[in-house]
């Protein structure tokens, strides 16, 4: 399937579509309140969104921020549109995120440029998505914890692999 990738920042028009996508495909099914769309991470100086587009429509997205003062980036709100799941789109999003951080070592959007070599990419993975991250060589770190009422594990990927 032909998927186009685009890094955007929170100020770009396409971000509104990302918010709608996250709501329909991640937050609403989990019963997470609409206010959660106002994710404070989106307002961080070094936050970015990787958007997967098919025929100019958002079919997946993943947001990421640099953890200030560290060699780490955390991604959040990873989601693929329901009708597109199980077709390798999620895998392509994660691989593109890893490729950007490893090879480009910079993220450039309309309004922002982030340039730094990072060593670790991680997320708080929902228990039922852990197998997905493990397939992509992420490793569980630490014990299970509850966030937003759901079981999670911290999942880490070594960018020097
Ligand atoms: C989890 C999610 C992002 C996966 O995206 P996807 O496009 O369906 O996944 P892919 O088709 O790229 O799957 C890649 C591989 O992971 C496996 N996989 C996918 N979801 C899995 C899961 N929940 N558990 C175990 N393995 C899984 C696939 O079988 C595939 O394996 P293969 O490479 O051996 O064929 C998607 O199901 C989704 O958006 N879920 C709802 C939101 C969500 O839970 N997000 C995670 C937040 S932490």
TrEMBL record:
Top-level division of the source organism's lineage: Eukaryota
Chain segments annotated as transmembrane: none
Occurrences of domain N-acetyltransferase (ranges): 1-160
Protein name stated in the entry: Glucosamine 6-phosphate n-acetyltransferase
Pfam family, one: Acetyltransf_7
């Amino acid at each position: 399937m032909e998927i186009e990738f685009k890094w955007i920042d929170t100020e770009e028009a396409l971000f509104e579509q990302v918010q709608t996508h996250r709501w329909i495909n991640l937050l609403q099914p989990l019963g997470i309140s609409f206010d959660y769309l106002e994710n404070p991470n989106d307002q961080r100086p070094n936050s970015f969104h990787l958007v997967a587009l098919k025929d100019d429509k958002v079919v997946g997205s993943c947001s990421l921020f640099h953890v200030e003062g560290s060699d780490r980036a955390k991604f959040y709100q990873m989601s693929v549109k329901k009708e597109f799941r199980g077709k390798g789109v999620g895998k392509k999003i994660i691989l593109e995120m890893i490729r950007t951080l490893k090879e480009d070592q910079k993220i450039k959007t309309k309004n922002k440029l982030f340039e730094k070599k990072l060593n670790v990419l991680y997320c708080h993975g929902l228990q039922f998505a852990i197998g997905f991250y493990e397939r992509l060589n992420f490793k569980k770190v630490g014990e299970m914890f509850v966030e937003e009422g759901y079981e999670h594990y911290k999942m880490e990927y070594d960018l020097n692999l």
